[in-house]
Amino acid sequence: MLVSALIAIYETSLGIQQVMGVKSSGNINYAITGSFSNPGPYGGLIAVVLSILIAYLWLYRRNADRWYEKGIWWLSLFSAVLCVIVLPASMSRAAWLSCGVAVLVLGFKEMNVALWIRNNKFYSCVLVAAVVAMSAGAFFLKKDSAIGRFHIWHMEFRAIAEKPLTGYGKGTVLGVYGDTQAEYFAETECSEIIKKVAGCPEYAFNEYLKIGVEYGIPAMVGVIAILILLIALLLSHRSPFAYGLIAFSVFAFFSYPLEAIHIKSEAEKKWESIRYLSGMELYEDAVEELAPLYGDLKDNYRYIYDYGYALHKCNRYQESNEILKEGAKISSDPMFYNIIGKNQEAMGLYEEAEKAYLHAHHMVPCRLYPLTLLMEMKIRQQDIDQALRYARKIVAMPVNERHLTMVRLQNDAKECVDSLSNIISD
Questions:
Q1: Residue numbers of the domain that contains 281
Q2: 226 and 324 part of one domain
């Protein structure tokens, strides 16, 4: 328990210092991340530790007789208070929910909450109404994010349905997700809301569905069964860690705790140190430095993209495609297919290039770039009708005015519509 309290004190103090500006967070887009690069996993850790501490404080409230036991109890109380202060700042609804579920189980098992509910029906109804209102508020706090999470799960369920028994293999969940989403949008007419929230996630946002995609339903069910058995065993021994495991299990349904901690290898450090070469357009040097790292970093899709793109800029189109196709297997980012399409186009394989561009478009249908590449290719082929069709489609798409690149692409498409319309009328 001492370790849990010390972890809580360290992480919460780090988070408080980040909010106050004393220390920088692990992500420039967020004020608080603790020792992580994202506030989500950070909130999950705080929720798990807080659940353990609350359970310990309740279960051992009368059993701390010796001086060091009393010291640990009061230290746990102090660290729990810090967690309560920091947890809301993480803005992680999954963390809030996971801690709430753990405390609710503790209440029913150890605090006679069921008896209190029977004796206080009116207040119980008020409490339920308050919880429902807070849940609705949490949903609307980041509405698009919540809808996007449901959409991600929908795609993962569709992927699992295709290979329910064996799955697609280790590390394939993002690549499978991208292909599944592309197939879905190519075949289904969806609302603009769904198109807006559909993106290229870097995580599965559900550890159980991730296991289902990669290893099949039997493995997913097996993991869930093991967690249930462990929780039941810990609960039977009145262990505070049972409630931490409950919080972890709930959080894993909504987030990615198993992927949050990542220790960089020497190869990754080398890759990070040479990324400037591409930024300076020294692509020949970049390829020379990146090639030896492939064996160690072939599971890192960001490295794969850098390597494949450098090969593309060196006009080594076939080699670039071979590398980029490997990256597309482990990433949901349509940029892999955009560059594959450019390579195919450069080799004169226009039909294959069009397929790659359309696949990239369907992967994330709110993005303009794949259609822009298609429009430009059709112009070079002097296929004016098709070019005009894609240009008009780009102009009709909703664009975030704060996204200057998208605004520029749409303005270019508007100019193309005008010029191509004049060519047709002449």
A1: 263-331
A2: no
